[in-house]
Amino acid sequence: MEVMIITGYGTLANAQEAFHFGVGNLISKPFNVADIIATGSKAFDRRSEKMKIKGLIRQIQGLRSLNESKEIFFK
Prior knowledge:
Distance between the termini: 44 Å
Order of helices and strands: EHEH
Oligomer: single chain
Shape: elongated
Helix content: 55-70%
Strand content: 5-15%
Radius of gyration: 20 Å
Number of helices: 2
Number of domains: 1
Number of strands: 2
Structural class: mainly alpha
């Protein structure tokens, strides 16, 4: 899940703390709707890429375990 914070207190310290706790985006007030839409779109794209990477990692792990099973079976 991507987390986005909209704040009226957009200080550097607040931003650092938010990112420390895993916030993906911090938008300071005043903001416009286009900023929110663009930020949400980027968050969605990042999430999609992360899911693709996780899927590839699972495939690699599956191939690795299949290969290990074959090595044990054919020894």
